[in-house]
Specification:
CATH architecture of the largest domain in chain B: 3-Layer(aba) Sandwich
Largest sheet of chain B: 5 strands, parallel
Radius of gyration of chain B: 32 Å
Helix content of chain A: 40-55%
Helix content of chain B: 40-55%
Distance between the termini of chain B: 34 Å
Keywords (chain B): Aminoacyl-tRNA synthetase, ATP-binding, Cytoplasm, Ligase, Nucleotide-binding, Nucleus, Protein biosynthesis, RNA-binding, tRNA-binding
Largest sheet of chain A: 3 strands, antiparallel
CATH topology of the largest domain in chain B: Rossmann fold
Number of domains of chain B: 4
Radius of gyration of chain A: 15 Å
EC number (chain B): 6.1.1.10
Oligomer: heterodimer
GO molecular function, one term (chain B): tRNA binding
Order of helices and strands of chain A: HEEEHHHHH
Catalytic activity (chain B): tRNA(Met) + L-methionine + ATP = L-methionyl-tRNA(Met) + AMP + diphosphate
Shape of chain A: globular
Strand content of chain A: 5-15%
Distance between the termini of chain A: 20 Å
Protein name (chain B): Methionine--tRNA ligase, cytoplasmic
Strand order of the largest sheet of chain B: 7-6-5-17-18
Number of helices of chain B: 33
Chain lengths: 140, 900
């Protein structure tokens, strides 16, 4: 899924109505959002966090310091590890790690659904469906 | 909270700086772990720094840890900071880790290091100056500044890597570096050793993927079945049905092999092994074996192929060896040439010629090229300062001096090149030089020498490269090495030496000198061919018709890609120059290097004594071929690959397919009626076969081997799903189905035997004998999967192909070849030993600290008596001190670790 399509999907699920236009930058097609009242924003997770705030759903970024840091950690994981030029071996490791991380959790931060869950889900979508092994990742 | 750090891990910098800035640091415990320790239970790969929170959660991202410290002190997240941190993680880090790896681990300098990060540095500089803010996210220093500063500090603290023209970056960096928390973090992590303090950590990290070529993956792609169109399936099945008919007649064997106009003529060379060393597994995979796979593949394609190699015999090393053993140099060469030849014969290397460089042809051709260079003005004369060992009464050849590398400080640098950083060295530049024979310190003396005027030839070289490189299969490392040489500018290169054992220099005043081996060693290929056929020039002066593939380890690239082409271009005699230069990275042994002197590693002559067949060695070495990155030979892994890939996958499939034919169908291949599933399988196998061809045409040997294993995996699944062994006992329709499955399976086995031929020639021949595969089908591999064993074909006796390797067998081999000693790598041993000296004790103390911490917290919560609290706090502090001691790691006092 191209980043722009992903962000549009996120806008919908956040209940944002106006629909932003995104451009893409460079060879990795990094999304760029031109905001009305400021400079443009670049990067998938940056824009996503911005949209969450726009929709007044800050709780999706975590409520405590710990949750906030964890949400950002997994957002970073999404853009560095999941979107990297992953080969099969990496994907396998990644799913295995995630599976054991989720062993005792419902969502990435524990019990609260956050933006990290949404973006990691979008990012992993294409791999998970084929891998019955990673039961926990799938349930999540 | 507990923060886990590791000596020299760059992530510690921003984390410590952020921790220093934020409040409430009192609760932060710091533990040092080894660079390969897995702290986070759910992560497969080691990662530091890591922050374990009181809730038990882990933060394993450097930025997230820093963010957490900032959040604790009341800071609020904002878009601009998020943007900087996302940029840091996705853009800056990949570039920076490449740069740091080049600098710290490979000892590179200048533009090699700055190149990868220049764009990122410019981006920061522009952002700072455009917004005319002193800090990244505004008027005050904030999270983004700390994270980026911490990432950049190891590199930028060396003014050489902080480009002056980037003024805004400059002042931002200086401002941050002068702040107290940053300063303290820098002292703790770099210990005033500068960037080299990162070495114990970075050395343990895999080399970051070549920064420019990030998209190229070395791992096999998707094993999932691709979707096929009806058309593809029909084409594959049509080709299959044509069977043996579509095979062209076999090429008649020629002797000698000569280029044929209008055909694809492939000339393959493997780097010439130096005669007085027994080659180790790394040498074997690096050139001889890799070239062999390609030569065999090339013959399977019916390309007109000549594969040559030989021993490189001239030079002082030989002279010295001769003295040691009380023989003449010629006798030494004869002796070791035979040893080499035997080893390669045992490994089943299919040379057309395995020659040597000490022949009259070598003298003739070398002198001819030299004369032509001389007449055309490409030879200079100059006086050279040279190392002379007074005790041995002779000038020391490069290989006979050892000392400290002037570039990277590696202690065992040779006189011509440093094994560590790969830079070429002028022997007199070595620090603390030593004569390798008598260990005394040589003196500098001057002597007249001849030089190849490379600067004058540079333009021709660039023109040639410009024509040759695009679209060729030069490996990325070879391109990179040549590019960096050209960027640094070529210098005249000395081509003579004060020796006796070499090709004489045909020039007055130089009667007592010989050519330097690196001028004439590459000419060895020509002279070896000339000893094979008097029509050698049809191969070597025929660039239009000949495709030259040269195989070597990467340290040989400059001589094959630069020095020889320059000599040949300067000689103006229409020489055939390398079309595809195939260079491997290095193979390590277990966790260290192969070392003859320390008896570590497997050497060519020992492999035969292990009882493990040559083909198994070939398979494993090719499976781990250092293609694109360094790799390591590991006994355990060899056992694993043998037992899983060969025995359970490949061997199992081929054996079952054959056994079904003999057991259920009396040894005759049954009738096959392909269902749509079977047709699909034929198409999938065809596709994988084509993938194999694509890879081998690009000399991606290791990856192509994966295709073979993939096909056999498909085969195993196919047999499993269709349960031929059950159906054979069922109805007529079931019996027919069993026949089709068996027939198709045994044909896949036949195909595999041919695909396997370049890798495991003996196993391939065994399979073909068992299946009685018709002759042309054994020696030709087309791009389509054919039915080469038609219904009614009688096969021979089927027997198992591979043997299981047992743990104790492998364990005793590991002991024997010293891998055990190499398990504790020499350099970082100090660090790790200290950090993990008594892990149990550390664990006990950690638990106690945690327990005591709880007691203190509870007392405080209950607002207990002050004295009581103080007493418990004292206990806690004492425990923490003990813990720090046990971990060998009070962070405040640098341990003063010395480089080896």
């Amino acid at each position: 899924m191209a980043a722009a399509a992903e962000l549009t999907l996120l806008e919908k699920s956040l209940g944002l109505s106006k629909g932003n236009k995104y451009s893409a930058q460079g060879e990795r097609q990094i999304p760029v959002l031109q905001t009305n009242n400021g400079p443009s924003l670049t990067g998938l997770t940056t824009i996503a966090a911005h949209l969450v705030k726009q929709a007044n759903k800050e709780y999706l970024l975590g409520s405590t310091a710990e949750e906030k840091a964890i949400v950002q950690q997994w957002l970073e994981y999404r853009v560095t590890r999941v979107d990297g030029h992953s080969n099969k071996e990496d994907i396998r490791t990644l799913l295995k790690d995630l599976n054991s991380y989720l062993e005792d959790k419902v969502y990435l931060t524990g019990y609260n659904f956050t933006l990290a869950d949404i973006l990691l889900y979008y990012g992993l979508h294409r791999f998970i469906l084929m891998k019955p092994r990673h039961r926990l990742v799938r349930n999540w | 909270m507990r923060l886990f750090v590791s000596e020299g891990a760059p992530g510690s910098l921003p984390v410590l700086a952020a921790a220093g800035r934020a409040q409430g640091r009192a609760e932060l415990l710091i533990s040092t772990v080894g660079p390969e320790e897995c702290v986070v239970p759910f992560l497969t790969r080691p990662k530091v720094p890591v922050l374990q929170l009181d809730s038990g959660n882990y933060l394993f991202s450097t930025s997230a840890i820093c963010r957490y410290f900032f959040l604790l002190s009341g800071w609020e997240q904002d878009d601009l900071t998020n943007q900087w941190l996302e940029w840091e993680a996705t853009e800056l880090q990949p570039a920076l880790s490449a740069a740091l790896y080049y600098l710290v681990v490979q000892g590179k300098k200048g533009e090699d290091v700055l190149g990868p990060v220049r764009r990122a540095l410019t981006h920061i500089d522009q952002s700072l100056s455009r917004r005319s803010c002193p800090f990244l996210a505004g008027e005050t220093e904030s999270l983004a500044d700390v994270v980026l500063w911490g990432a950049l500090y190891p590199l930028l603290q060396d003014p050489a890597y902080l480009p002056e023209e980037l003024g805004a970056l400059h002042s931002w960096f200086q401002t941050l570096s002068s702040q107290e928390p940053c300063q303290r973090a820098a002292e703790t992590v770099l210990k005033q050793q500068g960037v080299l303090a990162l070495r114990p950590y970075l050395q343990k990290q895999p080399q970051p993927g070549s920064f420019e070529g990030r998209a190229v993956s070395n791992e096999p792609e998707e094993e999932e079945l691709a979707t096929l169109s009806e058309e593809e399936i029909t084409m594959a099945v049509t080709a299959w049905e044509k069977g043996l008919e579509s095979l062209p007649p076999l090429r008649p064997q020629q002797n000698p092999v000569l280029p044929v106009p209008g055909e694809r003529n492939v000339l393959i060379t493997s780097a010439l092994p130096y005669v007085n060393n027994v080659p180790h597994l790394g040498n074997i995979i690096g050139c001889v074996l890799s070239a062999d796979v390609f030569a065999r593949y090339s013959r399977l394609r019916q390309w007109n192929t000549l594969y040559l190699c030989g021993t490189d015999e001239y030079g002082t090393a030989t002279e010295t060896k001769a003295m040691e053993e009380g023989l003449t140099p010629q006798e030494i060469c004869d002796k070791y040439h035979a040893i080499h030849a035997n080893i390669y014969r045992w490994f089943n290397i299919s040379f057309d010629i395995f020659g040597r460089t000490t022949t009259p042809q070598q003298t003739k051709i070398t002198q001819d090229i030299f004369q032509r260079l001389l007449t055309r003005g490409f030879v200079l004369e100059d006086t050279v300062e040279q190392l002379r060992c007074e005790r041995c009464a002779r000038f020391l050849a490069d290989r006979f001096v050892e000392g400290v590398c002037p570039f990277c400080g590696y202690e065992e640098a040779r006189g011509d090149q440093c094994d560590k950083c790969g830079k070429l060295i002028n022997a007199i530049e070595l620090k603390k030089p030593q004569c390798k024979v008598c260990r005394s310190c040589p003196v500098v003396k001057s002597s007249r020498h001849l030089f190849l005027d490379l600067p004058k030839l540079e333009k021709r070289l660039e023109e040639w490269l410009g024509k040759t490189l695009p679209g060729s299969d030069w490996t990325p490392n070879a391109r990179f090495i040549i590019r960096s040489w050209l960027r640094d500018g070529l210098k005249p290169r000395c081509i003579t030496r004060d020796l006796k054992w070499g090709t004489p220099v045909p020039l007055e005043g130089f009667e007592d000198k010989v050519f330097y081996v690196w001028f004439d060693a590459t000419i060895g290929y020509l002279s070896i061919t000339a000893n094979y056929t008097d029509q050698w020039e049809r191969w070597w002066k025929n660039p239009e018709q000949v495709n030259l593939y040269q195989f070597m380890a990467k340290d040989n690239v400059p001589f094959h890609g630069l020095v020889f082409p320059c000599s040949a271009l300067g000689a103006e005699d229409n020489y055939t120059l390398v079309s595809h230069l195939i260079a491997t990275e290095y193979l390590n042994y277990e966790d260290g290097k192969f070392s003859k002197s320390r008896g570590v590693g497997v050497f060519g002559d020992m492999a035969q004594d292990t009882g493990i067949p040559a083909d198994i060695w070939r398979f494993y070495l090719l499976y781990i071929r250092p293609e694109g990155q360094d790799s390591a030979f590991s006994w355990t892994d060899m056992l694993l690959k043998n037992n899983s890939e060969l025995l359970n996958n490949l061997g199992n499939f081929i054996n079952r397919a054959g056994m079904f034919v003999s057991k259920f169908f009396g040894g005759y291949v049954p009738e096959m009626v392909l269902t749509s599933d079977d047709r699909r399988l034929v198409a999938h196998v065809t596709l994988e076969l084509q993938h194999y061809h694509q890879l081998l045409e690009k000399v991606r040997i290791r990856e192509a081997l994966r295709s073979i294993l993939t096909i056999s995996r498909h085969g195993n699944q196919y047999i499993q799903v269709n349960e031929a062994w059950k159906r054979i006992k069922g109805s007529e329709a079931d019996r027919q189905r069993a026949g089709t499955v068996t027939g198709l399976a045994v044909n896949i086995a036949a195909l595999l035997s041919v695909m396997l031929q370049p890798y495991m020639p003996t196993v391939s021949a065994t399979i073909q004998a068992q299946l009685q595969l018709p002759l042309p089908a054994c020696s030709i591999l087309l791009t389509n999967f054919l039915c080469t064993l038609p219904a009614g074909h009688q096969i021979g006796t089927v027997s198992p192909l591979f043997q299981k390797l047992e743990n104790d067998q492998i364990e005793s081999l590991r002991q024997r070849f010293g891998g055990g000693q190499a398990q504790v790598p020499p350099m970082p041993a100090v660090v790790e030993a200290a950090a993990t000296a008594a892990p149990r004790q550390v664990q006990v103390l950690m638990d106690e600290v945690a327990r005591q911490g709880n007691i203190v917290r509870e007392l405080k919560a209950q607002k207990a008596d002050k004295n009581q609290v103080a007493a418990e706090v004292a206990k806690l502090l004492d425990l923490k001190k003990q813990l720090a001691l046990a971990e060998g790691k009070p962070l405040e006092t640098p341990k003063g670790k010395k480089k080896k």
